Amino acid sequence: MATPFLLQRFQAQSAGIAIVRDILKRESFPNGFTTAQLYKLAMQAPPPANFQPYPLGRRPPPPPTPKPHKKKIYNQKPKPEDSYPPNPDHPIRSVRFLKEYILPFLRGANEITITQQPTAKTLTAQEADDAPKTKKQRLQLTKSQVEFVWKVVPPENRVKVSAPPPEKLVVGREVGVGGNVSHLNKRRMLARAGKISREVDRMKAYNQFSETRDGLLSRLRDDPELNLEMAEAVENSAETDLPSLLAMETQLGKGRPRQRTALASVDTEQHLKEQTDKIRRLVAYKAQAGHKSTSRFI
User: Fold this and answer.
1) Collapsing DSSP states into helix, strand and coil, what is residue 292?
2) Can you list the pairs that 209-216 forms with residues at least 24 positions away whose Cβ atoms lie under 8 Å?
3) Does the CA dihedral 127-129-132-138 come out positive or negative?
4) Model pLDDT for residues 213-272, shown as the tens digit of each residue
5) pLDDT tens digits, 16-63
6) Where are the annotated segments for Disordered (predicted)?
């Protein structure tokens, strides 16, 4: 169950992404922008209507100012900072929220990217004279003149995420085709491959048989006259396998149009259903000759 904090965070993230996208479309950043600059612009945008503020109670009082110590205290844990956001009524309630939930989403969508570039500040003549002379100091000064900025990725340069390819249809997955057999030794792997191959052959035979049988039963349901004639012929015949019933259907259907006749009453319709079920049981896959190892299928 989602807590009020999670629900508010989802709503704030969605609204904050919309605000930042509007800023990126409206403003131009030729030299990029920093997180602080983006946060300052986002604070100027009003929150959407019916926006739920951050659900916090009364703000705790600030901690008392510690007294100065003459001696330096080592191994002292820093006190936790105040977790109350500075702008609880705004979707982007803090810089931390912008860094953790807004900018990573836009970067993952390839709408913005972060780059490293030198700062725009230039050294004056006095600063150049006062520049450090050692190598370590010059390296530190060079690092201080470099900043990370965000830049908008043009729409034509954004990588379009294509839809995943359709899953390949694997015949025989129900009987173990494509399963993991890495835990078996070589002998059992070969035995498993042979077993799966035989099961696939049986499954294909059953599917073909089922398609033919269902077609026969559908034709019998659509033609009550043929249904009654088939039921009478089956009672007087010793051959009740599927090929024999198909040949019987062909023989009975010669010389007359195949059309649906109206039923006389509900009793007659129930009788036809019973005859169809009887024929279905006779042509069950288990009842056919040559299909003894078919316990997997019905």
Assistant:
1) coil
2) 209/242, 209/285, 209/288, 210/285, 212/242, 212/246, 213/242, 213/280, 213/283, 213/285, 216/242, 216/245, 216/246, 216/249, 216/279, 216/283
3) positive
4) 888 888 888 888 888 888 888 888 878 788 888 888 888 877 666 555 555 554 567 777
5) 999 999 999 999 888 889 999 999 999 999 999 888 888 865 555 666
6) 49-90
